[in-house]
Amino acid sequence: MARSARVSTWLVYAPGVREHVEAARRRQTVPGIDTSSTTPLATRTDLALAREEIMRLRADRDKLQQRLRLQLGAEIEGPQRAELIARVSELEAVNRRLVAEREARNSDGRGAELRVRELEDELAAARESLRRMIRSENSR
Q1: Cα 98 to Cα 74: distance, rounded to the nearest angstrom
Q2: Taking the CA of residue 138 as centre, how many other CA atoms within 13 Å lie in the half-sphere pointing to its CB?
Q3: Could you tell me the residue ranges of all domains in the chain?
């Protein structure tokens, strides 16, 4: 009765209310019908129907959760995967550019090393020439 009225059970048994509930039960009693045997059957039927409904709702919930997981997975993997592929392509292009720059710098470095050696040779020759010139001037 509390469930049908959507109130708590303590309200049904509270003093002042309980007497009215019992009086209403007595007024509903019809001679010749045993309500004690029909009430449990109705309760069992309601319980069975409620259990079936719960099972159906749980199955629906599980289906919806699975669909949501798949949808979220697709949202997470989709753009991120495309972004990662674009990022890898971009990094490969940057890597190729940097390798080319390194090779160019290495080539420039080798050229600079050759130029330094040439200049060192010229400097050594100039120094030797200067020494000879100084010696020849001093010997005169």
Answers
A1: 35
A2: 6
A3: 2-29+40-139
